[in-house]
Amino acid sequence: MPPVANPTSTAAAGDATEESAGRAEPSRTRGEKRRPHRRSTLLHRLDLHGAPYAFIVPFFAVFAAFSLYPLIYTAWISLHRVELASMDLMEWVAFDNYTALWGDERFWNALFNTITIGVISTVPQLFMALGLAHLLNYRLRASAFFRVAALTPYATSVGAAALVFTMLFERDFGMINWVLSLVGVDNVDWENNKWAAQIAISTIVIWRWTGYNALLYLAAMQAIPRDRYEAAAIDGASRWQQFLKVTVPGIRPTILFTIVLSTIGASQLFGEPLIFGQGPNGITGGADNQYQTLGLLLYEEGWKNYQMGRAATVAWAMFLLLILVFLIQRLLKRRATSRTS
């Protein structure tokens, strides 16, 4: 006789099945609800971690296109003999351009002129900017006018400033020689005399950049807490002592920054001596190369002699010179920090 199913057990099994199905249904619904949550979490992570990189991508793209690629391509050209008229024809010469530059007297003359003009223009410029910023730091009437006036030479184009100063330093009819004649000094040949030409070019640089550096110093001075000056005044320090003991140490990082910035500008000096030469002598830095800088030598090699390989070699020599200056600056900064500590 076949076994008879127990109605009670069957009903219980059915209820269990329905109960399990009912439990599975909410779990499926939870899974469907978790998917949008996971997507939102993923988007949040991408926004949190990827957004900073997306913001800096334009900068690195522009830097790679207009700075990194020209730097690498210039290094590649410096290892070849290539003329301006046929840039697609390159002859591999390895480091011959560098060895030829090392033995070229014009390179050492241009390097020496760059250093001397840089020193003559940078040292007085920074001292004048420091004094001007110290005066502008006090409460003066129409202080905004004086600050704008200090920045006006920087806003003037290089060509206009160089042309005006060229007329001022003209040998026969220049105002500078006229003023010197009032005190019994004969006319100075500012262009053909080596040191006179370098002083005249340095004067143009000083006039253009003093106000700019003064505003940098002024911004750094205004960031110094006034409590330090009050404490120094209570201790009996004079204005000059406050300047030496409070102001100068407080803006020391800005001073180092302006020194590096001025050094870079001096190594790339080009427009002022080019226009000061008034014609073909401007490219060669005078008849005897008495004020030819590295920038003028680069221009002469590339756009007068049409030797782009040599011009690229001069450009890389300037770049290596800047790296050397930067390393020296870092070394001096570390020594100063170690002495202070």
UniProtKB/TrEMBL annotation:
It comes from the Bacteria. Its main location: membrane. Residues 1-11 have a biased composition (Polar residues). Keywords: Cell membrane, Membrane, Transmembrane, Transmembrane helix, Transport. The chain crosses the membrane at residues 53-79, 110-136, 148-169, 195-219, 254-271, 313-332. PANTHER family: ABC TRANSPORTER PERMEASE PROTEIN (PTHR30193), INNER MEMBRANE ABC TRANSPORTER PERMEASE PROTEIN YCJO (PTHR30193:SF37). This is Sugar ABC transporter permease. It comes from Streptomyces formicae. The lineage of its organism: Bacteria, Bacillati, Actinomycetota, Actinomycetes, Kitasatosporales.
